[in-house]
Design a protein that fits this description.
This protein is mostly helical and 167 residues long. The protein is 91% helix and 0% strand.
Length: 167
């Protein structure tokens, strides 16, 4: 150790170094330790607040998600109900239109049937008149050949009755 005089270890040097270290520790503790602890405590509180805010934001997001899901479900149900009602209204209107068309067609059929019946009766009456005229002219010719008026009328009535039965 003679070659290294600075590295000589004696008791007073060690005690001096320890006292210097203790004084340095107390000075650092007095001036820096409380401030560093305060900074660390502030950082710890800030991190805790950030986690707390993040948890609140997550809870809020979940609540909003649930509300959104409920609204979508409600909207889907409402749209299904609207479509169902629209389909019912459309079916009802369709049935109403078909019913009106059937009534109108039935009315047209009845009118056509009535018109046909009237035309048939008119034609039959016209034919009867024509036959009656023909029968009268035949009767006049026959009367001219000496048939009695009574026989003449009987022949006309039989002829007319025979034509009416053929229908």
């Amino acid at each position: 150790m003679e070659n290294f005089p600075l590295l000589s270890f004696d008791a007073t040097t060690i005690i001096g170094v320890l006292i210097n270290t203790l004084i340095l520790f107390l000075i650092v503790k007095h001036f820096l330790f409380d401030k560093v602890n305060a900074v660390l405590e502030d950082r710890k509180n800030s991190v805790a607040k950030t986690y707390e805010d993040a948890d609140k934001a997550l809870e809020n997001a979940k609540a909003l998600e649930n509300e959104y899901t409920e609204r979508i479900s409600s909207a889907k149900e409402e749209s299904a109900e609207i479509l169902k009602n629209a389909a019912k209204k459309a079916q009802s209107r369709s049935d109403e239109i078909i019913s009106e068309a059937k009534k109108e067609a039935h009315g047209i059929m009845e009118k056509a049937s009535s018109d046909i019946e009237k035309e048939k009766k008119r034609a039959v009456n016209q034919i009867k008149d024509e036959i009656s005229d023909i029968a009268m002219s035949i009767a006049e010719k026959v009367v001219a050949k000496e048939i009695s008026a009574k026989d003449h009328e009987r022949l006309i009535e039989e002829f007319i009755d025979g034509i009416g039965d053929e229908e």
